[in-house]
Amino acid sequence: MNIEYKVLCTENNQQRIDNVAIMKSQLPPLNVIMSGREGLFERFVNIFKTDADGVVLLEDDVQLCKNFQTRCEELIASRPNEVISMFESACSRTALHSEYRAGSRYQWNQCNYFPKAVCDEIIKPENVAQFREWYKTKYSVWTYPSDTYIGYVLGKMKLKYWMQVPFLVQHLDFKSTLGPRPTNRQSKFFIDDVEAQND
């Protein structure tokens, strides 16, 4: 399979720039797209333009597991036509297991695979326009609702996505670039930690 790996890296944030450099060293095919706040949502949507079989989208505040590319591509090969979440429900205190979840529940952008058919829907101008109108009816302030938009598109397509546990990335304790959010959004289901506990 031909898979593109992409990350939006926050401009003028050395901590995130340094982390993306580490990610790139571990994942050489990673395509780094620098971005500030202006035009951020549009840049996010454009990430999904691809001629590949699919896109793995990462955020700039994650730690990759050991052998990430091999593990990621083995997982995708087993579910090539499905959206796959490789991190979410960070602070869950209950046991998580791999399962299908309703697309409308999608809310974590840390590491996900999107097959080309879904990428093509995400970039459709009519979907973006309809989402903007829908968002106005739900929220008073436009933020950077990238995960909300993905959930909107998946819901419109009536698609479920696959949540894979253990997770292949860990959320780092970086300060959010989008405002006051907690930094303790790490998961106890990160595969490196799970394997270390089982050794």
Discrete helix count: 7
| Estimated structural class | alpha/beta
How many strands appear in the DSSP assignment? 9
Rounded average pLDDT: 91
Q: Give the name of the CATH architecture.
A: Alpha-Beta Complex
What about the largest sheet? 7 strands, mixed
Q: How many domains would you count in the coordinates? A: 1
Distance between the termini: 33 Å
For the record, what CATH class applies? Answer: Alpha Beta
**Low confidence ranges:** none
Shape descriptor reads globular
Cα radius of gyration in angstroms: 16 Å
Organism: Treponema bryantii
Protein name: Glycosyl transferase, family 25
Summary?
This is Glycosyl transferase, family 25. The chain has 199 residues and is of the alpha/beta class. It has seven helices and nine strands, in the order βαβαββαβββαααββα.
